[in-house]
Specification:
Chain lengths: 170, 338, 124
């Protein structure tokens, strides 16, 4: 029975819609709504995410290559940091111009998974909440969206660092 | 005013809908109903610094305009009933300080417009008020800030999401009128329903149950059928929500026919990237006060049901994982006799 | 020349595929973007902690460093490098130190930009 259900689910994903729905609607309303809701087109959305995400990474690589061409002695980590900074700065400028959200509408995960998504979430909050003032607006709400990423990131790095330190003691 | 059935109330006196005014931004004006709106704002900030201030300014402007249109003095209006989407009802409350009119603020999210109509109607029916103004509206940008993300934040909207209407709709109800004017005859006060939808982007689906409950109550209380009406308009279910409502009504044995429409679904054209259509307190308010009122006045619609639906969640309850309770209030209009 | 082009192909492939995985999660589940970012960050930190992610960085360059998983990797590698050189306090501060430039630029530049711009109404 479970196997049949999974099979139906897979078929539904492929045809992008409802195969059949049994029973009274209000008894299983959440499932009914799920089957009725329009699905995102798979091919286009994945293609856009791939192309835009890949393009942003390629841009980072290109900036790194240019920096390396001018300064061949530079540490590989420094080059990586510089290309990240370039993408962050570019994203913030595009956000300020009101262009970035248009790109993000097409790119989806292709724009929020690269570091550009992190920069956009900070910049958009800073711009939006400046109306509540510099202290409680920009100051406290800047990490409204990006906060979870930063907090979790620092927490994980602490865990990794401490675990490594303890292991290295033995 | 007397009760018929379980939750429907019939006004013994005629409550005349004397005037209607709708104020929208340019996006709504580019939609299907563009030519019906009373006034279009080129700049939806109205020169204000914040979108909350802009929404307030729109609200104030709409009241001033309907007073002017109806040649009413502030002292002649006995009651102002208003609703909007902002926390603590700031739009209505702040705007009301500009006027020398007794004021009631109501909140039932997107169904605030019908709620304000039925409260104003009740005051008139009781003989306590002669002229009342009911107004409701919303602003895309302020709603987006409060309920979702910063405006410049880049994200993809879900295919089943809706677009908050930027607009205000104001209605002048009066005890005194003539037979040519549209009237409110009956109202049904909605019951709150909740069938477990949690997704804040899919409010059409959550609200469809409330709409079906209220419509069902109304049809059973009045012993009428959907075919008895020229137009049955829900507030802001959007395309998905209205499809679900049709399914629900078929299951309950009151199938909705060609006379059924949804204000949110009809306001934008399919080219406008608004997915399932418009939402917000403004959706039912601007569509009623433009298109539906116009047709009622001309007598093209004789009997109209307006069922505005509201999703009663807040950002906090949503983040805490609660489901979305919904309500729908119904107002039955009769068109002018030609 | 050919080697350079091959590198860009690798960057496009790896960077694009990481985004595609996230997009698949977006489509099939109701997980919000913020949660997906946190999950990816964790994966990056775990892979970085075991030293696996660095192979990907060597192979695909910016294709691995620019996505959020690269951010997680830098945090973990930084903490380990800090622990190696400065002991316990290095383990505590190393993660932030390695990523501090990016975070500081994001904050500082956003702060600056917020003085000059306001959010605009969207029409579609």
């Amino acid at each position: 029975m479970c196997f049949v259900k999974i099979l139906i689910k897979i078929c539904e994903i492929f045809i992008g819609g409802q195969l059949f729905f049994m029973g009274k609607i209000l008894d299983n309303y959440v499932e009914y709504v799920e089957s009725k809701s329009p699905k995102t087109g798979w091919f286009n959305s994945l293609l856009h995410a791939f192309l835009i995400g890949g393009a942003i990474c390629s841009l980072g690589q290109m900036v790194g290559d240019i920096i390396k061409a001018f300064n061949p002695m530079m540490d590989i980590q420094m080059v990586g940091t510089w290309s990240s900074i370039f993408i962050i700065a570019l994203t913030i400028v595009l956000t300020a111009l009101g262009v970035f959200d248009r790109i993000a509408k097409v790119g989806g995960a292709g724009t929020f998974v690269p570091i550009s998504g992190f920069a956009n979430s900070i910049a958009s909050c800073a711009i939006e909440y400046k109306k509540e003032g510099l202290v409680f607006g920009v100051g406290s709400k800047m990490f409204f969206v990006a906060g979870p990423v930063l907090v979790n990131g620092v927490a994980y790095s602490l865990i990794v660092g401490i675990v490594y330190f303890i292991i290295s003691l033995f | 005013m007397k009760k018929i059935g379980k939750s429907t109330f019939e006004f013994e006196k005629d409550i005349f809908v004397k005037g209607a005014f709708s104020l929208v931004s340019s996006k709504e004006a580019e939609g299907v109903l563009g030519k019906y709106f009373s006034e279009v704002l080129e700049d939806d900030t109205l020169g204000e610094k914040t979108f909350e201030k802009a929404e307030r300014a729109m609200h104030t402007l709409a009241i001033k305009k309907i007073l002017k249109q109806q040649e009413l003095l502030e002292s002649e209006v006995d009651l102002l009933v208003s609703g909007d989407l902002m926390n603590q009802l700031v739009t209505s409350n702040f705007s009301a300080r500009e006027f020398d009119i007794p004021f009631l603020g109501v909140y039932s999210a997107c169904s605030s417009f019908t709620e304000s109509l039925l409260i104003a109607g009740t005051f008139i029916s009781a003989g306590a008020a002669k002229n009342t103004i009911s107004i409701a509206g919303s602003h895309f940008s302020s709603a987006e800030r409060q309920y979702r993300n910063p405006l410049e934040f880049g994200n993809q909207r879900q295919t089943y999401s809706q677009w908050t209407v930027t607009g205000m709709g104001a209605t002048h109800l009066s005890l005194i009128g003539s037979n040519e004017m549209p009237r409110i005859k009956k109202v049904t006060v909605g019951k709150v329903t909740d069938y477990g939808i949690k997704d804040i982007a899919n409010m059409g689906a959550a609200m469809a149950t409330a709409a079906s409950r209220t419509l069902l109550d109304y049809f059973q209380d009045t012993k009428t059928l959907p075919t008895d009406y020229d137009l049955i308009a829900t507030g802001d279910l959007g395309k998905l929500g209205s499809d679900i409502l049709k399914d629900l009504m078929i299951e309950e044995g009151f199938p909705l026919g060609q006379n059924y429409t949804d204000c949110g679904h009809m306001i934008y054209s399919s080219l406008q990237n608004s997915f399932q259509g418009g939402s917000g307190a403004g959706a039912s308010a601007v569509v009623f006060n433009s298109y539906i009122y116009e047709k009622l006045k001309k007598g093209e619609f004789k009997k109209v049901l307006l069922v505005a639906t509201g999703a009663l969640m807040s950002v906090t309850t949503n983040q805490q994982g609660d489901t979305i309770p919904c309500v729908a209030h119904l107002v039955m209009f009769e068109g002018g006799k030609c | 020349m050919l080697e350079g082009l091959l590198m860009y192909a690798k960057v496009l492939l790896v960077g694009g595929l990481i985004c595609v995985i996230a997009q698949v999660i977006v489509i099939t589940t109701k997980i919000t973007p913020a949660r997906i970012l946190v999950i990816f960050l964790m994966i990056g930190a775990v892979l970085g902690g075991f030293g696996i992610y660095n192979y990907l960085v060597e192979w695909a360059g910016a294709g691995a460093t620019v996505p959020i998983t690269g951010f997680g990797n830098s945090l973990a590698r930084g903490a380990i490098a800090g622990a190696k050189t400065d002991g316990f306090f290095g383990a505590l501060g190393g993660g932030l130190a390695a990523t501090s430039a990016g975070i500081a630029v994001s904050i500082g530049f956003s702060y600056l930009v917020s003085f000059f711009t306001t959010s605009k109404t969207k029409k579609d």
